[in-house]
User: Fold this.
Amino acid sequence: MSNTQKTYDRLVTELKEIGLLGSVGGVLGWDEQVLLPDKGRELRAGQSGLIARLHHERFTSPLIGQMLAELESSGLLADPHGDVAVNVRQTRRSYDRATTLPAELVERMSRTEVHCQQAWVEARKKSDYGHFKPWLEKMLALKREEAQCYLSAGGDQSDRPTTLYDALLEGFEPGERAENLRRVFAELRAELVPLIEEIAGRGKSDSAEVLHRRFARDQQEQFAREAAAKIGFDFEAGRLDVSAHPFCSGIGPGDVRLTTRYREDSFTDAFFGVLHEAGHGLYHQGLPAEHFGTPCGSPVSLGIHESQSRMWENLVGRGRAFWNYFWPKAQERFGAALAGVSMDQWMGAIHRVEPSLIRVEADEATYNLHIILRFELEQALLHGDLSVDDLPGEWNRRMKQDLGVDVPDDARGCLQDIHWSGGMIGYFPTYTLGNLYAAQFFEQAKMDLSDLEGHFSRGDFVPLREWLREKIHSQGKRYSARELAQKITGQDLSAAPLMRHLREVAQIGGAV
Ligand code: ZN
Assistant:
């Protein structure tokens, strides 16, 4: 065995152990949201902090840097999409990012995050933007400082980001650039705004009433479990529990945890929430276990992750073919609540489009306008084109312009999301990227697989799951998100497939 091969094997062994440390942090995090007694919070903060520190120290050790440098000058990287090249290239990206920030800045950021988030919780409760404003200002200054560190770091990658915003976006969607997103989002917005105006012009309907009858909690849970299992989530390698904020945690091979919450006066929250998280879960379960801990065994980006959840939640889970199979089961299970309801009525209800104030409650069409607004405002804030003083006014103006709604107070306006208070600037666009990629992949799957909807109608979701596994899940970080989409669909990212889908949604939602 050559020396460089030995070095590579050592790097992989090291990354796998670091991956194990990360998964220990994952178990602690899941437990904190699902099981931890209140009085255990301080202990848990200590435990999680220690694991995070050990993880960071291990990953940023000079040893990793030496191994990477040795491998980069070797002949092992000849095939750019081979395992070795992918693992070395992607580890280098993460390593440079993790070692660039001075410890003193990291420390200041984590302290400010705690205060900023506390201020945000208070401010939202009282709808008092003035209470949050100075902290948002501090947070933005720190994010500029952080971004500047990435920009001025060395390295010879030709595709390095060149703006403050791109430097932050890189942390969530590697290789993506705001300029590309602005082009695709503008296409999307140009078609969405008039479509939503047209729908709003039809007047209010009470078609969604059927979704707010009484759905017993236990029945909801069993039905959601049945659906998650049917689309292929492996409950022997995963769980479904309850938490205040639903999430999916891919702890590692054989252990993927989903959570949801149940409300007896709502069908949609838990059911579509579970399909969404199960979509994330299927991605984790489809990652190659033998590559655990290394880039070849890791998800590509937040946008691609979200494409998996949105596909199962919206494109499959709200589709007619899906309900051809599940509707009789729902009627049987929920008896009185659904008695006398036709499947067409049901389809109308789950596709209803209506402009509203809150992002997380928005339907799949208006949702993207909430995101585009945040994407534009956070760039302007970061680059100093919008002052924190002017944020609420600008927010409200855009809500009126794009969605036709009046924002009554900042709690239901610019204070509604946690992201900015936690320093997550550059995160929002990945949600709409997920919708765009989902629509693009789903159109391709329908072309590649014959009679996909016939299969769904018979309750057979295996062909789609296997297609996703082969094309996306098993690839790890072999390709960037954009390369992956190009490779699978032959097209660059575009708004067209999502708009085709949303026009259909508007039609079904407006038909009742
Ligand atoms: Zn998601």
User: Anything to note?
Assistant: The two ends are 69 Å apart (CA to CA). Strands lie at 238-242, 248-252, 255-260. The chain has two domains: 3-160, 179-508.
